[in-house]
Amino acid sequence: MALLFAAFMGMLVSFLGQLPLGNMSITATQIYVQENARNAWKYAIGVAIVEVIYLRLSLKGVDWIMQHKLFFTVLGWLTVALFLVLGVASFVSANRQQSNKKALLLNNKMDRFLLGISMSALNPAQIPFWFIWSTYLLDNKVIQPVSSQYDMFTVGAGCGTIGGLAVYMYGGNWLITRMNASMKNLNKAMGGIFILTAVIQLYRMVKGFL
Fold it and tell me: Transmembrane stretches, by residue range (predicted)?
């Protein structure tokens, strides 16, 4: 029973964490709308795999993270630069594109599973998210610091991530179809989200130095 509860808590936290609008969730919508469900699911699974790796790092403890602080600092600055470039490029591309042309991020032959892995890896904010939540749940004895519960918590988190992205796949497709939104406007929205994500990450990085 305790193992099932640990899995449920992991799924719940991860699912709710995916619901706020972000670059990974809107990308899932774009892939579903502009390509197909199969590619969208491959993308979601790729995102989830990296998510559970970051979760395991968080469960391993802050000591490991502190020992590799330089790696995450470099990754954080790369994320700022990459998302700013993608945001600006998405706006430029949207203004020039034909109505149904693919989004800039999807206008390539990269396997969508690898795209999911890449985008999730470039989101180091997942580590503090999971570290805070796992610490809270452990302190309040919602889950116990034993390997079996960690494993089930991680499995549940992976399922929750996929479930949250599925909401954007199917719900986003329904909303876009209902609103008859153009791909051009969707791509502009994606550009705005990339820039907003970059600004938030930049704030976190600057705050970390102060």
Answer: 40-59, 71-93, 113-138, 150-169, 189-206
Per-residue pLDDT of the chain (210 residues; tens, 9 = 90+): 788 998 999 999 899 888 877 778 888 888 998 889 999 999 999 999 999 988 887 777 644 554 666 666 776 677 677 777 777 776 776 666 555 556 656 777 889 999 999 888 887 677 777 877 777 787 778 888 888 888 899 999 999 999 999 998 998 778 777 765 556 666 677 677 777 777 877 777 777 655
- Residue 61 φ/ψ region, left for φ over 0, alpha for ψ in the -120 to 50 degree band, beta for the rest: left
Please answer whether residues 116 and 46 qualify as being in contact, where contact means their C-beta atoms are separated by less than 8 angstroms.
yes
Burial (CB < 10 A; 0-12, 13-18, 19+), residue 128, is middle
Provide φ and ψ at 140, rounded to 5°. Answer: -95, 10
Largest CA distance in the chain: 56
Among 94, 161, 93, CA closest to 123: 161
Token pair for residue 144?
Answer: 């116990």
Torsion angle of C-alpha atoms 3, 148, 20, 85, degrees rounded to 10: -160
How many residues in the chain? 210
Amino acid at 92: V
Instruction: Residue 188: name the closest of 84, 88, 82, 110 by CA.
Output: 88
Q: Which of these, 84, 96, 80, 79, lies nearest to 187 by C-alpha position?
A: 96
pTM over 0.85: no
